[in-house]
Amino acid sequence: MRHAEAAQPDADPDEPAGPVGPIRPSPPAEPAGGVLSAPYRAMTLGCVATVLLIAFEAMAVGTAMPAAADALDGVSLYAFAFSAFFTTSLLGMSASGQWCDRSGPMAPVVTGIAAFAGGLLLSGVAQAMWVFVVGRAFQGVGGGLVIVALYVTVRRAYPERLRPAALAAFSAAWVVPSMVGPVIAGTITEHFGWRWVFLGITVLVVLPLLVLLPELRRSASGPPDGVARPMDRRLLRLAVAVAVGAGLLQYGGQELRWISLLPVLVGLALLAPSAARLLPAGTFRLRRGLPSVIALRGVISAAYLATQTFLPLLLVTQRGLSYTQAGLSLAASGASWAVGSWAQSRPWAEPHRFALVRAGTVVIVLGVGTTPLVLLDAVPVWLPVLTLGVGAFGMGLVVSTVGVLVLRFSTPKEAGGNVASLQLCDALANVVMLTTVGSLFAALGGDATAASAHATESSVDTAVGPGAFLAVSLAAFAVALLSVLVGGRLREPPAGG
User: N or C: which end of the chain has fewer CB within 10 A?
Assistant: First the structure.
């Protein structure tokens, strides 16, 4: 893969020749200032507002979901309301990458926001749980389309010196939703009903388009090289196979029965070869350069998400906290993540991208490895606030830096596909990791569904043994250690090497 900025156009024989080659007009001067300076302010605010609302939905839906499932008599489909979003987002990401490379990010952003809003509306007015799940599936497609298109927008609309800051702004947009989203959603659900959590965002999510569309049309419309390319139907079929395979994997992993092996095996048979063809060659083999950059995103996300997902349940069942108190252990993570992302966006960090990744992966290992110490009664119950915050700081450093490196390693016409691969690897790793640790947790006596049912009760079921949580923690720690190895393989090999 060539460095995007290293590619030089061939000399035009019709251009006048100078003493050292063709004489070309000087490129237009790059506007001065940061991402909030006048030339970039509207684009930045529009992108951040879009991410902010998607983030709020992600944080709020977990609070409103139990009420929705109960009202729609659909507790049996509770898990599918989450997995539907996750699996269809894989399809949206893959389609968005090709779409951006074909015609620019404007159409995927508009279509994605429309699908996201339509899904929110459908879930908000649903009278049956299966309709609610279909709405969540539309939200997943929309979210997948938008997130890839916004990364491509950063590649198209901002000079290289501002891309770290733009990606840091995306991370910062998750801070407020992560801290207040569940509280706001809980208040709305209690006083107005769960439907307004979805219907309220439906109205708001359209507003960023009023700011974003004119800027996208001006700075990032059309194909990157002026030549529209047809959609690759083979890649779209592979994306469908990945989404279906991921859904079967999650479905089969929910129950510990021999018959469940059938959907798991079919899911793996669909997912593994299709993902290998969708991701850059050598991703699974950790080949140096872009393949390892993309693989790293999946590895760190899997380790951190597994730790974060099971922590509230651990604090409730092992340390006797209420769900509200346990949720506070996650509140500092959003701010810590944003601080890490902000740190990598500073000008001093630019020459040290690879060193930042190595340092960040070590910090992630530290946070993931020390969080389960709270299983010990002698350890203060507030320890995870500190340890998970440390891990989140490392995630902020690495995730944003990985995004910068993917854009740096991509030519303009490759940016959409490579960003889609980055998001696809992230989502796939999360599906596989959560399915694995979820099955392991259940096999060792953990029952997340039963524990969730006790979330609103005054007495908490403590039947879940510490061994189940320890097994999950060890799996997350092993994957975090792998990230240190992968982080040392990001430099592109020498030419001819």
Answer: C
